[in-house]
């Protein structure tokens, strides 16, 4: 995750917007990640500052009388006096009421903005195309997902291994009859973000392949080692 992703995760955790895997991820990072709790505390302080702007409104005397009456138990019917309703005009003329209403509106607008950003963030994380890369045994070895903002993510499946002092290099063929173009070099088999924003527009059935290369990638700009995985992209559901 980038720092922006972690900051968003911390803000949504404080607001209680997370659920499922994202909430579990936030709680895991709270327990294991030294920097994430500080992000959460920062967002808590920001929202606490917003809460502190609300004026404290003492309860009116009528409320205390009703509480005392409820504690004392029901009074004899003859002694019951109807509670005089406060005129509504006093509520509308109350400056504290309008301040509180304005604060509630500002806080609701903030939640709406954060919710919209959260929704847009979720939308931007939905892949546009997905390629399942198969190994020599015709078994899925990795999944490559491409996104609308121009980046891609490679997720290894199973026990992917990379030979010592070597790397794997991801290639794609924007032109089926042209030369392959490098997407990225990986030396550790883990989920990795790849940059594809400078490449031509992806199309369905576009071929992706992975080859074994020297530690820093192919010295020629073209695959030099064996191709260990390949697959074509299809539009994500």
TrEMBL record:
Coiled-coil boundaries: none
Gene Ontology cellular component terms for the protein in this record: plasma membrane
Transmembrane parts of this sequence: 96-120
GO biological process, any: regulation of translation
Keywords, comma-separated and alphabetical: Membrane, Transmembrane, Transmembrane helix
Pfam families documented for this protein: RskA_C
One of the record's GO molecular function terms: sigma factor antagonist activity
InterPro entries associated with the record: Anti-sigma-K/W_factor, RskA_C
Spans annotated as Disordered: 215-237
Domain of life: Bacteria
Boundaries of every Anti-sigma K factor RskA C-terminal domain copy: 103-227
Protein name stated in the entry: Anti-sigma K factor RskA C-terminal domain-containing protein
Species: Microvirga thermotolerans
């Amino acid at each position: 995750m980038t720092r922006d992703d972690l900051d968003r995760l911390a803000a949504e955790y404080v607001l209680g917007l997370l659920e499922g895997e994202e909430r579990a991820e936030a709680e895991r990072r709270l327990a294991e990640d030294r920097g994430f709790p500080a992000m959460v505390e920062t967002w808590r302080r920001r929202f606490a500052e917003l809460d502190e702007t609300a004026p404290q409104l003492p309860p009116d005397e009528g409320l205390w009388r009703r509480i005392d009456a409820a504690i004392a138990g029901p009074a004899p019917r003859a002694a019951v006096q109807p509670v005089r309703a406060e005129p509504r005009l006093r509520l509308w003329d109350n400056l504290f009421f309008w301040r509180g209403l304005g604060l509630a509106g500002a806080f609701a607008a903030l939640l709406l903005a954060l919710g919209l950003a959260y929704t847009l963030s979720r939308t931007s994380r939905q892949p546009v195309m997905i390629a399942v890369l198969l190994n020599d045994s015709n078994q899925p070895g990795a999944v490559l997902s491409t996104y609308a903002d121009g980046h891609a993510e490679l997720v290894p499946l199973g026990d992917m291994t990379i030979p010592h002092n070597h790397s794997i290099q991801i290639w794609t063929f924007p032109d089926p009859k042209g030369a392959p173009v490098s997407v990225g070099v990986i030396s550790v088999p883990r989920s990795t973000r790849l940059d594809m924003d400078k490449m031509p527009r992806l199309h369905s059935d576009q071929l992706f392949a992975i080859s074994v290369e020297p530690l820093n990638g192919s010295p020629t700009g073209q695959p030099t080692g064996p191709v260990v995985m390949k697959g074509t992209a299809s539009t994500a559901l």
